[in-house]
Amino acid sequence: MLLLRRLAIYFFSLAALFCFYLILIKSGDIFYWALSLVVILALVHILVVGSYKAKKGSLIFLSQSVFFVGTSVSFLILLENYNLKIFLIFSIALALFFYWLLLLNFFHWPNEYQPFSLADFGHYLLLISWFFLNTAVFALIIFLNLSFWLAALLLAFLFLIIQAWEFWLQKKSIQNVWRFLLTGSVIFLELAMVLSVLPISYFVKGFLAVLSAYLWLELISLEKGQNWSQKVFFKKVIFSLFMIIIVLSTSRWF
């Protein structure tokens, strides 16, 4: 039975790749193919997780994969280079494949599961999804004249959920970090408002947003964990500042 589940993951990964390709070549029917992706995600979740009664909280994993796919579709629409789109859909399908395999090992093959591998992989999926989402929202401000106040509030609220997701994956009590979650949302609200008015590409804005989110999540994780290292965090801050300087100095300012 477990072997069949593993084989099914291969099949559904190819099915997801096919749906993404149909979104690429038949953009007029994007709603139907996106809905097909959601159905695939739900089927894989049922297949991988199994009995829900024994897997309390497993819907968090489903919501994370739906969030990843939804933001990926929104980002895919923004891309203009065809080769880059092809690379992206292959990367997304591959990420889903490894994510599903990790879930299968986590729930059914604990001997093959590497400790914290699912939390680490989920962490990076959240960051990638956050980049896709921010890029799409900042693009809406330009293309649809979306109010930057509304966009900033939306992103701040979603960042609250992202933080809660992150700490749930790390098996940390939300009650112990809720002050950090609210503080992070307020900080990101101000950051989103600043980024909204900067005359730079929405791709650059999305990158700056995810880099800021990465630093904040790292700060909370280190502070609330047992392995707090000021030196480690300082290195990450230096690297992030270096990346910000490089990106801003090489970006086109309108």
Structure description:
Keywords: Membrane, Transmembrane, Transmembrane helix. This is DUF2339 domain-containing protein. The chain crosses the membrane at residues 7-24, 30-52, 59-79, 85-109, 121-142, 148-165, 177-196, 202-220, 232-251. It comes from Candidatus Kuenenbacteria bacterium CG10_big_fil_rev_8_21_14_0_10_36_11. By secondary structure, the protein is mainly α. The chain folds into two domains: 1-113, no CATH class; 121-254, no CATH class. Helices cover 80% and strands 0% of the residues. It contains nine helices and no strands. The chain has helices at residues 2-25, 30-49, 59-78, 82-108, 117-143, 148-169, 178-197, 202-224, 230-250. α1 runs antiparallel to α2 (30-49) and α1 (2-25) runs antiparallel to α4. The longest helix has 27 residues, at 82-108. The termini are far apart. The model has no long low-confidence stretch (mean pLDDT 83).
Give the key terms.
mainly alpha; single chain; 254 residues; DUF2339 domain-containing protein
Class derived from helix and strand content: mainly alpha
The number of domains: 2
Number of helix segments?
9
Binned, the helix content reads over 70%
Number of E-type strands: 0
Give the topology string: H per helix, E per strand: HHHHHHHHH
Shape: globular
Amount of beta strand: under 5%
Transmembrane segments: 7-24, 30-52, 59-79, 85-109, 121-142, 148-165, 177-196, 202-220, 232-251
Organism: Candidatus Kuenenbacteria bacterium CG10_big_fil_rev_8_21_14_0_10_36_11
Keywords: Membrane, Transmembrane, Transmembrane helix
Protein name: DUF2339 domain-containing protein
